[in-house]
Specification:
It is a single chain. The protein is an all-alpha fold. It has one helix spanning 4-123. The longest helix is centred in the middle third of the chain and has 120 residues, at 4-123. Helix content is 97%, strand content 0%. It has a domain at 49-124. The chain is rod-shaped and about 175 Å long. Keywords: Coiled coil.
């Protein structure tokens, strides 16, 4: 059987153990609270960075759409220029053909004129 003194010492020992355990628990709790606050700050920073990146992405998307529109406009302009260039080439070719025909016609006219002149001189 334990004496009162032994019981008191045993109880005091258990209380000190419990107190030490409570101190460790409090330290752990404080550490967890600090980590939680740090995590919350980090999450806030991440959210802010995410918002910034979303804004940048929206701006880049807008710029991309504008570039696509400008590219389409340029493509249409180039297509139109190409058609006009083809038309110009055909016109130049037609002018060249007509000049060739005109030279041929002038040669024939000159030949007919010479023939006519020879015939006129022979008749007189």
């Amino acid at each position: 059987m334990m004496t009162r003194k032994a019981t008191a010492q045993n109880t005091e020992f258990k209380l000190r153990q419990t107190l030490d355990e409570l101190k460790r628990s409090k330290e752990t709790c404080d550490q967890l609270l600090r980590e939680r606050e740090e995590s919350e700050e980090e999450i806030k920073k991440i959210i802010a960075k995410n918002s910034q990146l979303k804004s940048e992405l929206a701006e880049l998307h807008s710029q991309h759409e504008e570039v696509l529109y400008q590219r389409e406009q340029l493509h249409n302009t180039l297509s139109s220029c190409s058609k006009e260039f083809d038309r110009y080439e055909r016109t130049l070719q037609r002018i060249d053909d007509l000049e060739r025909e005109l030279r041929g016609a002038n040669c024939q006219i000159n030949q007919y004129a010479e023939t006519q002149q020879l015939q006129d001189t022979q008749h007189t």
